[in-house]
Structures are given as structure tokens and as C-alpha cells.
Amino acid sequence: MPVYVYKGLETGNYYEFEQGFHDEPLKAHPETGEPLKRVITPPAIIFKGSGWHVKDYAKKDSSSKSEGGESKE
Hints:
8% of the residues lie in helices and 21% in strands. It is mainly beta. The chain has a domain at 3-38. The chain has a three-stranded antiparallel beta sheet with strand order 2-1-3, with no helix packed on it. The chain starts with a strand and ends in a 16-residue tail after the last helix.
């Protein structure tokens, strides 16, 4: 199940709640009743390198030279 982050509107504290994808967002903290607002957070995906998509999936031009800097001597 996804974990959603909420911010308490009175205290400013952040809370994480595990909810189903189709569940309605929480309006209040289940234990304290504090009003909550869902916080949008970026996904935990990091792409590293020099363009994996361009090098792996781009169409290759047959007339271009090799990019590896290899010497043919």
C-alpha cells in the first residue's frame, strides 16, 4: 500500500499514513483530531548517468562513427 505524507495544520508536524490508492485523503488525524493536509512529495527515483535513454534506445545512424573513442590501430 502507498504511504502518504500529511502536514498538521495546527502544529506543523508531518505524519505518514499507509492508505489504499483509492481511499479518500484524511481530513483529520485519526488519534488527535488535528486537521491535516496531504503533502505532495517527489517519487524516490533517481536516474544517474549520461542519458541512458539516448544511448540505449535511440535509433543508430549507420553512417556515424563509434563514440567510444576506440582506436582502430
